[in-house]
Amino acid sequence: MAGISDAFLARLDTHVSAMAERLLAEIEHYQNVPPEDLRRSLRHNTAFTLAYLTGSENTIDLSGPTATGRLRAAQEVPLPEVLRAYTLGFIYTWEQLLAEAIRSGPQAQTALLHAATGYWEVSDAYSQALTASYRDALAERLVETDRRRSALVAALVDGPPPGDGTVWEIAHMLDFPYQGTFLVVTAEVQVTGTPPLPGLDAKCRALDTGTAWRAQPGHEMGVLSCPNRDAVSQILEAVRATTNGRVGVSPAYDRLDQTPRALRYAQVALESLPAGTVAVRQLDDTPLTEMVMTNLETTRRAVNRILGGVLSLPESDRNTLLATARAWLDANGSAAEASRTLYCHQNTVRYRMHRLEEYLRGPLDDPKVIAELAIAVDAVGTFPTLLDRNLVSEPVPSGAS
């Protein structure tokens, strides 16, 4: 075996060059690996393997594949391709050793046959060490990338720290456009350490949508860069398909510097969902929503003035009247159309609206009263916290001003 090894080592540089050329020709990703770096790795691995087979080394030294694994991860060569390169290298070396053994005669062939177990033992140990170090390096890079992207998302929301650049530069570092179609998603974390939207990133990649996330206590928030407005509905379906808790989604917006406002929409959308539910809610960007978010207490007082008597009714009666009012308004005041939505007789709709009218500030043929009713119904529909009984006024007598 020592004779076979010496014959191979005498032409080591030639063999290393041949192996390097073969790898570069057969593995496209190795075009990004510096040739001298590749030759150095092949030379080290081959020399050690032969030393182990001849007994010069008693234990398998894994420093070579360990270093190579980390280096190839940094060079962004896919792990399957790195393992394939190792396999091709060991196959080439074995073919050359076998050819030398055949030239040397039966005793050399027998020696190589007995050494085969040790040879492939080294190959297996090298592959395992390389895989472990590659994955460790990749995990470290992913953590670093996540931390960096999380810091960039924080800068989008809170504003870049002095000297840290503009939103334009943040967009470039996130690989987002500055102008485009964006969504902010905020998701409640049900169990610490468990992602609230498992699998969403993969679905977003399939929809050509970029993502950047920031983890915070109790929830995660992310900025999604959509390919266009038409894709928003598909992205929302992906969010619904992956959620395991409450999720709020902002209206679509056009510039990254609008992210803080969009985040507020997403937070309010999440908070408006009942605790313990599994649901996704997106608020519309309407003047009413903007007004309520700007001053929730003022809106609460207005709703109480308009619907105070209704809100003080027993919950079942209150919900029935509000649902009827919403359907009636959506039907442009048509009891017949509203009855189809509510699955009841149109006379039932008229009865309920007449009953509701008793609690309003005037008759329903008054456009001002209808406008007030529409605002109040939209407000409590968008922000259910306005229904909190502890903050509802006493019933307002019919016709009171």
Q: Give the DSSP E fraction (strand runs of 2 or more residues).
A: 5-15%
Query: H/E series, N to C?
Result: HHHHHHHEHEEHEEHEHHHHHH
Low-confidence stretches: 391-401
CATH architecture of the largest domain: Orthogonal Bundle
Structural class: alpha+beta
If you average the pLDDT, what whole number results? 86
- State the helicity in percent bands: 55-70%
- Terminus-to-terminus distance: 106 Å
Number of helices: 16
How many domains make up the coordinates? 3
Could you tell me the number of beta strands? 6
From the alpha carbons, calculate the radius of gyration and give it in angstroms. 34 Å
CATH class of the largest domain: Mainly Alpha
Keywords:
disordered C terminus, Alpha-Beta Plaits, Globin-like, six-stranded mixed beta sheet, single chain, rod-shaped, alpha+beta, 401 residues, 6 strands
Could you describe the 3D structure shown?
The chain is α+β, with helices and mostly antiparallel strands and about 400 residues long. It folds into three domains: about 1-140, Globin-like; about 180-285, 2-Layer Sandwich (Alpha-Beta Plaits); about 295-390, PucR C-terminal helix-turn-helix domain (Arc Repressor Mutant, subunit A, Orthogonal Bundle). About 60% of the residues lie in helices and about 10% in strands. It has helices at about 1-10, 10-25, 35-55, 65-75, 80-105, 105-160, 165-175, 200-205, 230-240, 260-270, 285-295, 295-310, 315-330, 335-340, 345-355, 365-380, and strands at about 180-190, 210-215, 220-225, 245-250, 255, 280. Strands 1, 2, 3, 4, 5 and 6 form a six-stranded mixed beta sheet that branches. A hairpin with a 2-residue loop joins strand 2 and strand 3 (about 220-225). Helix 1 (about 1-10) crosses helix 5 and helix 13 packs across helix 14. The relative contact order is 0.07. Residues about 390-400 have low confidence and may be disordered.
